[in-house]
Inverse folding.
DNA sequence: TGTCCACAGGAAATACGGGGGT
DNA sequence: ACCCCCGTATTTCCTGTGGACA
């Protein structure tokens, strides 16, 4: 060991990195790290570039009634993830409140974020919490009790109350109870004028809703189109200016990222994440961000997404996924039905000393994996050889080995 | 035409684990 | 400390089903 040697190495590396730095302020590559006011200022710049113009105009006319002491009806908003629904709405509602307070119109808005799937109970509980009407419970208190507390808390308030409920369709099971409460019961019991803003990323969510709720729910609808490539370019350029040094980006990179992101979802968050990843990669190699860097970043991005999704999933789901992979490898080109995969699953559970769930429950696990699009399952009939769900692994082939390794580790197999 | 496979997937029953009330 | 109640997760039980085969 030669301490001076390693020191010299470190110093030269650090100096080198500093002189070649391309990231100026990495917080601007990740929204989570920005404080509220910074987020809003970025947002305002984006809006000033005429992005989301039509949506904001629509919102304005929908809520204009408030300034005339009118009661606008509820609003349903559709749009895929990363189309800026949440940010646009909170920006707009803040602005609206400001305007109203200048006119002395009492108004309040609350944001209920259901970005992770949650049962009716937790949704109500969260709602109660945002009103300070109750503490956070895990269990052990009835839905009725929660509703009463919310009502009690709001009983005195008489102005407008805008409830902005993000990702409504994440309310699993009993969605009707939740919505019935909001749509029918709550308005009758409180004096405030309630306006619901329901955000969802599926277009057809009111379809399988209790018809009684639906008829009560007079809705105005607003659709957030996915960003197109031009919008995304605006968004990226603003970020680049804030986060990166001058000349850190080769020409064509912005266009490329924008094109990639708009092609598969029009998701702005994803576009920014891709930019961030590219920047990190470029910085590590001390180069500019080139077109190849972007390709590399995109590949890694996909990999990370799948693997972290799996890693953080409940064990049973991981075991189910492992069994699907195992079965796919084992039976190579034969078609996979639920039965075979279930046998595999039982084996894996034994190895991982996990309690195997019943076939019925296993079927539900498969459906869940389908929702995450880790696999595709389709019910087919093979005549006298029965009916089953054909299961096809939907993982990029390059990832199968990685995923398998990770699952094996997580489940302590072998 | 009827049979029967191998499951799907709905409904009811049961197990679980945690909070509230006393 | 005890018991009871609640929502949630899983199991048990069950009916349904498309089409190959006889």
């Amino acid at each position: 060991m030669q301490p001076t040697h390693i020191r010299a190495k470190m110093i030269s590396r650090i100096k080198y990195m500093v002189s070649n730095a391309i990231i100026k302020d990495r917080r601007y590559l990740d929204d989570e790290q920005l404080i509220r006011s910074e987020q809003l200022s970025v947002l305002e710049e984006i809006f000033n570039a005429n992005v989301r113009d039509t949506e904001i105009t629509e919102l304005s006319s929908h809520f204009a009634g408030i300034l005339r002491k009118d009661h606008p009806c509820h609003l349903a908003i559709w749009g895929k993830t990363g189309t800026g629904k949440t940010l646009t709405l909170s920006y707009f509602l803040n602005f609206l409140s400001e305007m109203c307070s200048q006119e002395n119109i009492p108004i309040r808005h609350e944001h209920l974020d259901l970005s992770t799937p949650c049962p009716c109970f937790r949704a109500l509980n969260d709602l109660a919490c945002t009103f300070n009407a109750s503490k956070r419970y895990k269990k052990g208190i009835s839905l009725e009790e929660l509703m009463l507390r919310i009502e009690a808390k709001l009983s005195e308030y008489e102005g407008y109350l805008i409830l902005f409920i993000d990702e409504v369709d994440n309310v699993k099971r009993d969605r009707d109870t939740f919505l019935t409460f909001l749509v029918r019961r709550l308005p009758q019991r409180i004096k405030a004028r309630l306006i619901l803003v329901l955000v969802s990323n599926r277009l057809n969510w009111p379809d399988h809703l209790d018809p009684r709720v639906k008829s009560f729910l007079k809705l105005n609808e607003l659709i957030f189109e996915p960003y197109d490539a031009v919008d995304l370019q605006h968004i990226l350029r603003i970020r680049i200016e804030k986060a990166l040094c001058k000349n850190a980006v080769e020409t064509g990179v912005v266009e490329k990222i924008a094109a990639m992101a708009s092609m598969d979802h029009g998701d702005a968050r994803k576009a920014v994440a891709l930019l961030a990843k590219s920047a990190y990669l470029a910085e590590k190699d001390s180069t500019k961000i080139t077109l190849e860097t972007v390709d590399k970043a995109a590949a890694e991005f996909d990999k990370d997404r799948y693997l972290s999704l799996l890693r953080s999933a409940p064990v049973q789901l991981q075991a189910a996924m492992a069994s699907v992979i195992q079965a796919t490898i084992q039976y190579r080109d034969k078609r996979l039905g639920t039965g075979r995969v279930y046998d595999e699953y039982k084996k894996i559970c034994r190895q991982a000393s996990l309690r195997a769930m019943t076939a019925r429950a296993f079927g539900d696990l498969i459906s869940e994996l389908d929702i995450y699009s880790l696999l595709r399952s389709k019910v087919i009939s093979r005549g006298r050889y029965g009916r089953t769900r054909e299961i096809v692994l939907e993982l990029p082939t390059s990832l199968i080995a990685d995923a398998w390794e990770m699952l094996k580790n997580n489940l302590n197999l072998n």
